Amino acid sequence: MAEQQNIFKRAIKALTTVEENEIKATVSAFLFVFILMAAYYILRPVRDAMASDWTDSEVSWLWTLNFFIGIAIVALYGYIVSNVKFKNLVPGIYGLFATSFLCFYFGANLFTDRTLIDKSFYVWVSFFAMFHLSVFWSYMSDLFNKEQAKRLFAIIAAGASAGALVGPAIPAFFADNIGNDALTLVSAAMLFCTIPIIFYLARLKVSELKNEDVNADPESLKIGGNPIAGFKLFFQNPYLLGIGFFILLYTMISSFIYFEQKNLLDVYGRETRTQILGSIDLLVNLLTFGIAFFATGRLVKRLGMSFTLASMPVLVVVGMLILAFAPIITVLLALQVVRRAGNYAITRPSREMLFTEVDKETRFKAKPVIDVVVYRGGDTVTAWFFTGLTEGLGLGFTAVGIIGAAIAALWAGVGIFLGKLYNGKK
Questions:
Q1: pTM of the model as a whole
Q2: Alpha-carbon 218 to chain mean position
Q3: 8-212+226-424 domain in CATH 1.20.1250.20?
Q4: For the chain, domain boundaries
Q5: What pLDDT does 219 receive?
C-alpha cells in the first residue's frame, strides 16, 4: 500500500506542479469544486430551459431584478462576514444554498401556477452561479499562498471542469425520466456534501500547507470591519477596478451569445431543452478539463499573466468576426464552446490568482462586489442593450457580431493591463 502511494505521489509530481505536502489539500479542493460545479450544472439547464418560455424583454427584466437583489445580498453578506466567525462562514453559506434548493423543490410541488416559483428559481440560480464560485475562490486564496496559487489554481480549476462534465450528464440523460424538480433535489443533496470538506481543508492549511501566516487572523476570529466596506474598497482601488472592468467586458460577450442561444431553442419543449443544454455543457467541459489540468499552470508560468488573460479575448474577437460574416448555428455553438471552455480552463483560474495580492477583508467583501454586482450589472446593461439592438433596431447577426468583436478587443487590452499590474506587485 505504501509503495502504491509513493508511485501515486511520484506520478502526480511528474505530471503536474503539485508538491508532496500539497497533495491532500489540492485533492480536497479539487473534490470541493467538483461537487460545487456538478451541483450547479445540474441546475443550469433546468434554469435555462425556463428562459425559452419568455420573451427577450421578460428575461431582461429578470436580469435587472437579479442585479438589484445581488446588490442587497452582497451588502447583507458584508454584514455577515463582519460578524460571523470565519471558520463558520463558508460552510454556512453552502448550507444556506442547499437548504434554499430544498425549499424550491417543495414549493414547486405545492403550487399549481408555477410562474412565480419558476421566475424566482431562475433569478436565484443566476445569483448562485456567481456567488458560489466567488466564495470558493476566496477560500482558496485564503488557503494557499501566492507561489502555490500559480502552480495549483489551474489544477484545482480542473476539478470545476470535471464537475461540469458529470453535472450536465445527469439532466442530459435523466431529465425526461425523473423530471426537472427531482434534479433540484439532487443538487441540494450534493451541496450539503461540501461542508465536511471545508472543515478538513481548514485543518490542512495548518498541518500540511503550513500557511497559518498567509492571513494572520486565526480561523476562529471574525473578519470585522464595515459591512459595506466591499463597495468602498472596490471603488477606491485601481487594481480592483481593473478586475471589475475585465469581468464586465466578459459578461457583455457572454450575454450576447446567451440571448441568441435562448431564441434558437424556443421551438423545443422544456425537458428537451434541458437535455440539449446539458449535452452542450458536457461537450464544453470535455475540452475544458484537459486544458486546465495540464496546460494553464504552465501557461501562466512560462508566458506570463498578461498573455494568459488576453488569450481568450483574442480568440473571441476572431470568433465574433467569423460569426458576423457566417451567421450559422454551427459557428455560434463553436464560439460558445471556445468561450466557455477557455473561461473555465484559462481565464477564470488566472483571474482568481489576482486576488492572492489582496488582504482577507478585501477578498471576502470586495470580491463578491466584483463577482456578483459587477457581473450581474453587466448582464443587466447588456440584456437591455441586446434587446434594443434586436427588438428596437432590428439588427441581425452581422451587426451584433461586429459589435461583439469590438467589445472582445477591449477585453483583451484590459487583460494585458491587469497582467502588468499583477507582475508589478511581485
A1: 0.62
A2: 28
A3: yes
A4: 8-212+226-424
A5: 44
